[in-house]
């Protein structure tokens, strides 16, 4: 996913995030690696509980360190984040890296105006005056398409619509021109029209600021619209990586195939039923042996010797492309050949 002549702005290596609970150890992320270049968007996709949000909270240093065991390496512009102090992370959060959360209403304080919350973020990291910070808040509200920003800057979150609150969250996340933006399913609760507007806004702002973006979603349709590269997660692990077109047009893992097959498409007749993935995501307290997807995989019986239930498949990455699956290339070509890659169009 990275070219040989560019150094990744963000590099994650063998990341493990385990939580201690009364029932045992939850292996929420279990050996994840990826790179992200400046000005590019990495889409991380997977069902709820796959480890997407846990990964990005680890990047931001937002896990409770008393309850969470984190191993591996996270380099942001060659600075190690896992060993950074809370004071060092506070300087980075909102400044060099920032996050847009899924639920803007829950993330914004109901007791302070939208403008004050944006201005305080800017003032904290830049030391600007109150008047300059307010002017910056108005500028950002205008930039994200809020009408009459000079007036709306003094409104409270409940006075904004859902789409406008999400725009305000984006304004707050970008007010200090961060070099890394993490968007955690920012369009899930919005209607399709507003969703499209938010996606266009993020792409326009990325062009303007050159921001590296991690976009978390369970929706491959959204991935097709915004991502440059795709990382598919299942059970706390990466099962497939590649460019958007490679993954959506030519999936190499049965889980990715299942996600695509269960997605509605305008190209398919309305009377053709969707093919949902059978079963449920694995328990991360007691995950299955071998490939964590094998209990739900329709191709597990195609692999000789019951290997899928015995051995964890290796994720072999060549030129940014790879999948963790025991099926051979010939088997994947035979079994996956009927998939229509309309999502990549």
TrEMBL record:
It is a peripheral membrane protein. It is found in: Cell membrane. SUPFAM superfamilies: P-loop containing nucleoside triphosphate hydrolases. One of its GO terms (molecular function) is ATP hydrolysis activity. GO terms for biological process: peptide transport. Keywords: ATP-binding, Cell membrane, Membrane, Nucleotide-binding, Transport. InterPro entries: AAA+_ATPase, ABC_Ni/Peptide_Import, ABC_transporter-like_ATP-bd, ABC_transporter-like_CS, Oligopep_ABC_C, P-loop_NTPase. GO terms for cellular component: plasma membrane. Pfam families: ABC_tran (PF00005), oligo_HPY (PF08352). Residues 12-260 form the ABC transporter domain. NCBIfam families: oligo_HPY. Belongs to the ABC transporter superfamily. PANTHER family: DIPEPTIDE TRANSPORT ATP-BINDING PROTEIN DPPD, OLIGOPEPTIDE TRANSPORT ATP-BINDING PROTEIN APPD. This is Peptide ABC transporter ATP-binding protein. It comes from Streptomyces phaeofaciens.
